[in-house]
Amino acid sequence: MTDYNFAYLDEQTKRMIRRAILKGLAIPGYQVPFASREMPMPYGWGTGGVQVSAATLTPEDVFKVIDQGADDTTNAVSIRKFFQATAGVDTTEETEEATVIQTRHRIPEAPLNEDQILVYQVPIPEPLRFLEPRETETRKMHSLEEYGLMHVKLYEDIARHGAIATAYAYPVKVEGRYVMDPSPIPKFDNPKMTMPAIQLFGAGREQRIYALPPYTKVVSLDFEDYPFEASKADHSCELCGADDSYLDEVIVDDQGGRIFVCSDTAYCAARQAAQSDAAAAQYEEISA
Amino acid sequence: MYVAVKGGERAIDNAHAWLGEERRGDQDVSELSVAQIREQLSLAVNRVMAEGSLYDPDLAALAIKQARGDMIEAIFLIRAYRTTLPRFAGSEPIATEKMACDRRISATFKDVPGGQILGPTFDYTHRLLDFKLAAEGGLADAPEGDAQQGDVPHVLSFLDGEGLIQQEKQGAGTPPDLTREPMELPADRPLRLQSLARGDEGFLLSLAYSTQRGYARNHAFVGELRIGDIPVEVDIPELGFAIEIGDITVTECETVNQFTGSKTEPAQFTRGYGLVFGMSERKSISMALVDRALRWEELGEDNLGAAAQDEEFVLSHCDNIQATGFLEHIKLPHYVDFQSELELVRKLRRDTMAGADCTHTQEAAE
Amino acid sequence: MLVTATSTSAMQGGFNNVPTEAARQFRAIMNAIARPGRIETLGGATPPAPMSVAAGVIVLTLCDPDTGLHLAGDHDTPDIRAWVQFHTGAPFVPAENANFAIGRWEALSPLTIYAHGTPEYPDRSATLIIEMDALSTDGAILTGPGIEDSASLSLPEIEALKTNALLFPLGLDFFFCADTRLASLPRTTKVTEGGAI
Fold first, then answer.
1. Looking at the structure, do residues B110 and B161 belong to the same domain, yes or no?
2. Would the CB atoms of C33 and A12 count as touching at under 8 Å?
3. Which of A37, B32, B134, B347 is most exposed, with minimal Cβ within 10 Å?
4. Residue of A1, A18, A144 to mutate for C, most C C-beta atoms under 10 A
5. How far apart are CA A36 and CA A252, in angstroms?
6. Residues of A belonging to the active site
C-alpha cells in the first residue's frame, strides 16, 4: 500500500477535514458539513471515523481501535490494519498506551488523559433525525435552539413506559447550547464524555464532523423528577470481577445459561493480569 | 513496530482467500479476461462507469471481474478508486448536438430531420433464449451504411421555434460538485441532475415508474433519446484554446411533458432531462422523469406529497454506495447497543409486572 | 512559470515532507484550539518576514485553493504573496470573503467586517491569525470548553474578544502567533480582565 499517501487520504482532502475539525472544536456539538470521500471500506463501517483518524494521525502516534469495546472484533481489526499499512503507526490494545483511539459504540473504561484523542464512528449524527427526517428542518431547529420535539419524545416515553426508553445514543446537551448525538454508545458511557481528552466525531455517509474540546460540559437530557441514570447489567464481570464496567451478556449453553463479561476487553485483560500477578506474588510470599 | 494481532486478523485473511477462490470458480473453466468483460458485457460496464462516476471501460470491466459480477460492489470499487485520482482540469460542457449518433429516436414525431435511427436496441427483439449463444454460435454481420455528416439538431429545438416548450435557464457559472462539497439542501437543478446521473438505476426506475402510475404524474413522452459518441474538450489556459482529450459515449433523454400553465406561465410543454455515461436508456429515461417531477416548485405546480417530488428524499437515498453501506453495516456487531436495550426491556417489564402485581393484590384485598 | 528571484525564494521555506510534517503541525494547531490559552510550538516553515513561523505553519497546514486568504497591513507584500501562492495556491481575497486573515491586531480590525457564520451554518466564519510580538500565559482570564478551571493569555484587546464570545454560536476564531509560538481563542472562550481574582 506504499503507493498511497501517508494515512491514505490526499493532502487537500486532509486539509478540508482538518479545517472542519477545527470549526467543530470551536463550536462544540455543532455538526460541521464536510465533503466526505468514498473510502476503500463501505459507508456505515466507520468511514467518518477513518477519515477523521486519517486527518489526525501523526507518524509518532500509537493507535488503538475498538468496536463494541473490543480490540479483536473484525471491523476493529480491519481498520487497525488499514492504518498500519497506510500510516505505519504503532498500534496497541492498551488504552493507557494509545494516543489516538478510534471507537465504535463504547468509551473505554480507563479514564482518558489530556494527551489522548478519542475518535468516534457515527452512523446518524443528527440527534433529531428520528423525530424529523428532513435535514432542512433539523438544521432550522438547531439554529433556533428549538429542542421541544426532543423533550416531548422523552416525556412521552415516561408517560407510556414510566422511564425514558432510550438505552444507547442517548442525546446530550453540550455547553447548554447544541443537542448532540453521542453516537450509539450505551448511556452508561454518557457521563464519561466530560473528559480531559479531545473527542472527535466523524459521520462519513452523512458528511458531518463534530467535536468536544476537553472538559466541555456534556449533560444527558432528562427531567427533574426523572433524572438520567447511567445503567448497566446488575452483575459483575465473570472474568475479572469488575462491578463498575459495562458488561456484555454471553449465552453459554442451550438452556439459556449466561455469564456477564466486560465489554472493554483491554480493561478486563489488564485486571485479570494484575490479579494473577498479585496471586503469584502472594504464592511466592507463602512459599518463601 | 509493535502490532496488536488477534484471531480476528487470521479469520479475515482466510475469508479473503476463500473469496478469491469463489471469484475464480471452477479452475477447469477458462478465466474471463477483462477485455472479454469490456467487449461482451458492455452494458454492465456502462452501468459501472455511470454510477461509479468514472469513464474508463477497462477499469469498470476489471471491477466487475473483481466483484464477481455484483454491480454495486463493482461501482463501489470504482468510486473508491476515483477519489484517489488528482483532478487536473474541468472539461468544457459537452455539446450533444455534435454527437455521432448510434441511436436516435423520438416518440413525439413520426419523423424528424436527421431521421429516426434505431441502432443496436433490444426493443423489438423477441425475448426468447437464444440457445445458439450457449453453443458459442456464430455471428451474422450487421449491414453498414454511411455515417451522417454534420450536427444532429435536438428534436425539442423544433418546438422551441413556436415557443411551445419552456426555455431552460442558463446556469450561473460552474455547477457545484457533489464529490468535492458536502450536499446542501435545498439543492439547485445542476446539483440534482448530478446526483441523479450517478444515482442507482433501480431506485430511479422505480421512482420514475411511480410518477407514471399517478404519484405526481407528469405525462411524459420521450421527445428524444440519443446515444452516441461525443468529444470532450479541455481548455488549456497556456494555449488559449480548448483541445480534444477523447470521446465518450453518452445517452441523453429529453422528455416532453404536458403543462397546462400556471398563474405566471402560459400553457406550454416542459421537459425532463437525463444524461448518463455509456449506453443506458432505462437510466436516462428514468432520470428525465424524476428530474421533471422534482421541478414542481419551479413550475408552480402542486406538491402532491409524492416521493418523486421530494428533493430531499430522492437525493438523500439515490446513491447506492451510501445505501448499501449503511444497510449492510447492520451485519457488524451491535451487541453493546443490544445489551443496553435488553437491560431496558427487562427493567420496563419488571416495572410493569410489579405494577400488575400491585393492582392484583389491591383487587384481591378489595 | 517564469523563475524570477522572487519565485526562487518563494519556493523555499515550505515543509520538507508535506504529509507527515502537516500532520504533526496540525496536531499542535488542534491542541491549541482545543485548549484555549495553552501555548504550542510550531515549526517547519520559514515564511518571508514579517510573517512568523507559527503563522506560516498555519497557512501551509490549512490553506489551499479552496480557502480565501486575506493579508492585512504589513503582511500584504509581494514576497508573502508569492510564498503563499507557491506553497498553497490559496486565492487572496478581501477581508469580508476571507476564510483566513493574517496580520497584526490593528491591521485586522475592526472584527465586524469578517464572516461570522450564519445561524444555520455558524462554521462559515473566518479564522483570524494574529501576529504578536510576544505571547505569554499571563493577562486575560479565559474560561470555557477546553479549559478545566481557567487559563491566562496575553491578548491584544479584551473588549472585542468579549463581544465575540457573546455572539456564540456565531463568531470568529483566533490564533495568536509570536515567532514559533501559538495560542488560540475560539469563540467559546469567555474573556475577563486578569488580576481580578
1. yes
2. no
3. B134
4. A18
5. 42
6. 29, 237, 240, 262, 268
